[in-house]
């Protein structure tokens, strides 16, 4: 009973924390914690007081810069993903296509249906190829940069200076392996959704997407805290009720559309809010429960693939040294 209560409490807390970003985002800049002033009895020296004032002034300016950057980037994400990308899909599908259908029905009263049967998929394919796909790829690249800016600025504003992984080689390897494991986990989730058991496939795939979306949001914060990849994955698996609840809103919204472009647009539009939520959240631990080891399979597979590639590279013969004459 206690375990069930802890599970439900963690899930509800995660769900509550995830949607807090929609409230925090409006007055995020107004809640900057002020640096406590030094006591006059502790710092009587005039030079120290001036140095402290200068440091405080610089910190305030840096905080204001981060505030502006967070707000500015979020507005840019809304404009790019909501206005440019999302609105173009709405205009094409719900304005231009119906207008073209009406025009065809005026000129081709009897054969309009047959012509439209072939014209609509052709127009949609051309629109997707010339506009949607290039814009989708470009927006993904730009969003990645903007998401990182939002996360870094929000972390500095609330938590302080980021503590990244010390070694540059470890940092690069951590990022690349993280992307690879997340890709494998997404493939695993999609394969489970194809199971021929109605209901079970949706639930199992949904659980995967909830945890993956929570990992997406929290990974920026944990990366700035200096947490390595396997620590981040273990923390999600061990405290899965909280992260399942946290990732539920974004997973539900992005799983509903049948179009991958609409789903990607909604994700990019809403994800900055969940970055803010993750930066402010205090995850509920699940110490007495059982870890939900859904990442273990893809971690093992990625390790085997990487080990195989390293072994093959080491087995390649060295090129002969150039002869000297």
**Backbone CA Rg:** 25 Å
H-E order = HHHHHHHHHH
| Low-confidence region ranges | 31-43
Q: Number of DSSP helices?
A: 10
Beta strand %: under 5%
Net shape: globular
Report on the architecture of this protein.
By secondary structure, this protein is mostly helical. It has one domain (9-28, 49-312). The chain is 77% helix and 0% strand. The chain is built from ten helices and no strands. Helix 3 (46-107) runs antiparallel to helix 9. It is globular. The N and C termini lie far apart (83 Å). Mean pLDDT is 82; it is low at 31-43. Belongs to the EI24 family. It is found in: Membrane. Keywords: Membrane, Transmembrane, Transmembrane helix.
Topology summary:
Elements lengths: L1 H18 L1 H4 L21 H62 L4 H47 L9 H26 L6 H25 L4 H10 L1 H16 L4 H21 L15 H20 L10
Keywords:
mainly alpha, 325 residues, 10 helices
Summarize this, please?
The chain is built from ten helices and no strands. It is mainly α and 325 residues long.
């Amino acid at each position: 009973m206690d375990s069930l209560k802890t599970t439900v409490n963690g899930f509800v807390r995660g769900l509550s924390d995830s949607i807090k970003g929609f409230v925090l985002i409006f007055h995020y800049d107004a809640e900057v914690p002020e640096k406590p002033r030094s006591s006059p009895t502790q710092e009587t020296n005039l030079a120290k007081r001036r140095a402290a004032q200068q440091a405080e002034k610089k910190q305030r300016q840096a905080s204001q810069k981060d505030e502006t950057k967070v707000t500015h980037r979020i507005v840019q994400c809304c404009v790019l993903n909501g206005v440019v990308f999302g609105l173009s899909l709405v205009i094409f599908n719900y304005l231009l296509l119906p207008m073209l259908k009406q025009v065809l029905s005026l000129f081709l009263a009897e054969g309009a249906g047959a012509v439209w049967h072939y014209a609509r998929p052709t127009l949609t394919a051309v629109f997707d190829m010339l506009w949607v796909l290039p814009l989708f790829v470009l927006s993904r690249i730009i969003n990645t940069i903007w998401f990182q800016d939002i996360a870094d600025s929000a972390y500095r504003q609330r938590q302080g200076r980021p503590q990244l992984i010390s070694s540059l080689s470890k940092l690069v390897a951590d990022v690349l392996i993280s992307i690879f494991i997340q890709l494998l986990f997404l493939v695993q989730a999609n394969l489970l959704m194809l199971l021929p058991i109605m209901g079970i496939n949706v639930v199992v795939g949904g659980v995967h997407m909830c945890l993956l979306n929570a990992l997406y949001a929290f990974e920026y914060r944990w990366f700035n805290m200096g947490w390595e990849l396997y620590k981040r994955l273990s923390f999600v698996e061990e405290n899965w009720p909280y992260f399942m609840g946290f990732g539920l809103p974004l997973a539900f919204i992005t799983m509903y559309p049948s179009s991958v472009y609409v789903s990607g647009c909604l994700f990019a539009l809403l994800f900055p809010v969940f970055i803010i939520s993750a930066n402010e959240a205090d995850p509920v631990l699940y110490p007495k429960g059982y870890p939900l080891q859904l990442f273990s399979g893809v971690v093992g597979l990625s390790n085997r693939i990487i080990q195989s590639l390293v072994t093959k590279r080491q087995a390649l013969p060295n090129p002969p040294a150039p002869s000297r004459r």
